[in-house]
Amino acid sequence: MAGNVVEVSDANFKQEVLDAPVPVLVDFWAAWCGPCRALAPTIEAVANEHSGKVKVCKLDVDGNPTVAGQFGIRSIPTILFFKAGQNVGQLIGNVPKGAIDDLIKRHV
User: Fold this and answer.
1) Distance of CA 107 to CAs 7, 24, 25, 73, Å?
2) What was the pLDDT predicted at 3?
3) Which of 22, 34, 39, 81 is most open to solvent, judged by the fewest CB atoms within 10 Å of its CB?
4) CATH number for the 5-107 domain, one of 3.40.640.10, 3.40.30.10, 1.10.357.20, 2.60.40.10?
């Protein structure tokens, strides 16, 4: 993972995402997913631009099926945005950076 992107798992999702003191953007992805790999540089750019204001995480759905199932992730990439432990926004697919920035602006 890039410097400002935190890898999360079933084991640390609550601590890293739900209990985080700042809003958290989570990219649900898998290594075999082409659109997920295409989205990765965008996620890194968002993490760098919003460093300190928004925490950006990635969760590999293959290795962490509990959290993926808990949030009904059926298509990847899926981005969920959490504020105060609540899912307040969602984007599905290899979306443009502007869509992610808009999601963040609505909630920060």
Assistant:
1) 22, 10, 11, 21
2) 79
3) 34
4) 3.40.30.10
The two structure tokens encoding residue 20: 């985080």
By C-alpha distance, which of 93, 100, 96, 102 is closest to 29?
93
**C-alpha closest to that of 44 among 78, 80, 2:** 2
Q: In what order do the strands lie in the sheet with 55-60?
A: 5-8, 55-60, 24-29, 78-83, 86-92
**How confident is the prediction along the chain (108 residues), in pLDDT tens digits per residue?**
557 999 999 999 999 999 999 999 999 999 999 999 999 999 999 999 999 999 999 999 999 999 999 999 999 999 999 999 999 999 999 999 999 999 999 998
The answer to whether the pTM exceeds 0.90 is: yes
Catalytic site residues?
Answer: 33, 36
Of the candidates 29, 30, 11, 35, which has an alpha carbon nearest to the alpha carbon of residue 80? 29
